[in-house]
Amino acid sequence: MFKMNFLRMRTRKALKKNNALRTSLPYQQAHNVGVLFTVEDKQKHLDVKEFIHLLEQDGKKVQVLEYLPLRKENYEFKFDFFTIKDLTFWGNINSTQAQKFLETPFDYLFYIDKEPNPLALYLLAASKAHCRVGRFVDKDEPFFEMMIGQNGTTKGLIETMYKYAKQIR
After folding, report:
1. Domains, the chain, with CATH or none
2. Residue 66's pLDDT is what?
3. Are residues 49 and 78 in contact, defined by beta-carbon separation less than 8 angstroms?
4. Cα–Cα dist 123/134, whole Å
5. What is the pTM of this model?
6. 118-126 vs 96-103: helix axis angle to the nearest 10?
7. In terms of Cα–Cα distance, which of 64, 65, 66 is closest to 56?
8. CA torsion sign, 71 to 76 to 34 to 103?
């Protein structure tokens, strides 16, 4: 699929050209937090909602963006989302929500997928976030400032991300 090849090229270019300030602000001082994930099932949706609630209890302003694959249900329509239909032939993501999300200089950006999604990786590469946190996958190191080695459930991944982010002082 040409779109995906162009998207991969754009992702590599975004990784090289992105000059956003990358730093790990102490968690207590962080204000803006982004959460990015791919819709999979009702349980993941509930786990992400619980995580957002935790972040909000900590006084964080949370912005969420989900990638909604074809034939997946968008539970509650609670979050901003984009789909494969927002990907142009030339590999651009043509979504106002996605554009706004990647231009936000989050203190922390949590990517909650166990398997990397090429569209989400592009957003991570182009993001202005200061500290991008995601699951450890060898080839994805350039996308993150903090990676979590976790092979269990989505809930386990979220809990581990939260635990380690809170320890940043």
Report:
1. 2-13+32-166 (3.40.50)
2. 97
3. yes
4. 13
5. 0.95
6. 40
7. 64
8. positive
Q: Are 99 and 72 in contact (CB under 8 A)?
A: no
8 A C-beta contact, residue 46 and residue 18? no
Q: Do residues 7 and 122 make contact, with C-beta atoms less than 8 angstroms apart? A: yes
Q: Could you read off the pLDDT of 77-132 as tens digits, one per residue?
A: 889 999 999 999 999 999 999 999 999 999 999 999 999 999 999 999 999 999 99
The pLDDT, as a whole number, for residue 2 is 85
The CA distances from residue 142 to 4, 18, 57, 126, in Å, are 19, 11, 31, 12
Rounded-to-integer distance, Cα 118 and Cα 83, Å: 12
